[in-house]
Amino acid sequence: MSGEKNKVRLAVFKLTSCSGCQQQIIDLGDQLLALLDRIEIAYFLEASSDAKPGPYDVALVEGSVSTPHEEELVKKIRENSRIVVSVGSCATYGGIQALRNWMDFEEVKKAVYEKPELIEALEKSRPVSDFIDVDYAIGGCPANKLQLLSVLKQVLIGRRVYQRGEGLCQECKRKGNVCVVVAKGQPCLGPITREGCGALCPSYGRGCYGCFGPMVDPQPGALARRFEDLGLSREEAALRIRSITSWSEPVRRFLEKYER
After folding, report:
1. Integer Cα distance of 39 and 8 in angstroms
2. Where in the chain is the domain with CATH 3.40.50.700?
3. Which residues are CB-contacts of 52 (< 8 A; sequence separation ≥ 6)?
């Protein structure tokens, strides 16, 4: 470890995002403060203007890579950091802004900006791991702050980070939720989504939007067929599955074939 009294030097970076995952870190409050005897927060512009240069022991990166500047930034982060963790669905899967990846980028710019010629951006919004090696990844929109805390603690004790890979349906069953697909005929991405949110939307009678990204071996094709059985067209089923983490590898691979 580097830094005063062998503290772990922590840096938090923001790319293209809403800052929600950084807010989750701040919302740890006393739980984060309790770690300050082991952690030096060297760089975290959302929380402090006192930004110290690297190298860093741990870098948490929020947001997708959407501009040439961000592409260069993540490469510098990797060079200056011993451990890099992508935090949230934008950094891990491309995020909701990756929906533009399925459209003509020039047309998107014309529709959104008054002077699209002034916009300097990459054609696609992509996850951090497309540009650098990422040691650990935490999904979520926003990320679960308790998962964030667990990762930090495991890094502090030098343990290889472990995260559960269960699907959201398991969370629903543990909470005793009635399945919205079976009982209400509502489309829900729970059968292909990783747990972590506490089955928030299904707990209120709504279908899951897939915020935490795909579970292991998600089988989106089977879910699409179930959506069609519910009366959705192929286009409607594709739009549902696309959602927040459509640029994740298994979902993207399926949609590229399904929408032909």
Report:
1. 5
2. 4-156
3. 9, 42, 43
Coil, strand or helix at 142: coil
Q: Mutual orientation of helices 220-229 and 249-258 as an angle, nearest 10°?
A: 50
Domain 4-156 has CATH 3.40.190.10: no
Amino acid making up residue 239: L
Enter the tokens of residue 15. Answer: 């790319």
Query: How is residue 116 annotated by DSSP?
Result: G
How many residues does this entry show for the chain? 260
Tokens of 223: 């879910």
Sequence-distant (6+) residues with CB within 8 A of 40 are 3, 4, 7, 8, 9, 10
C-alpha to C-alpha distances, 255 to 10, 21, 99, 120, 248, nearest whole angstrom:
37, 27, 12, 28, 11
Task: Return all residues near 48 (Cβ < 8 A) that are at least 6 apart.
Answer: 41
Closest by Cα among 27, 254, 2 to 148: 27
pLDDT tens for 113-164 read: 999 999 999 999 999 999 999 999 999 999 999 899 998 898 888 888 877 7
pLDDT digits (tens, 9 = 90+) for 212-225: 999 999 999 999 99
pLDDT given for residue 180 in this prediction: 95
Cα(245)–Cα(209) distance, integer angstroms: 9
- Please choose, from the candidates 197, 147, 148, the residue with its C-alpha nearest in 3D space to the C-alpha of residue 172: 197
pTM, entire model: 0.91
Distance CA 64, CA 18 (A): 10
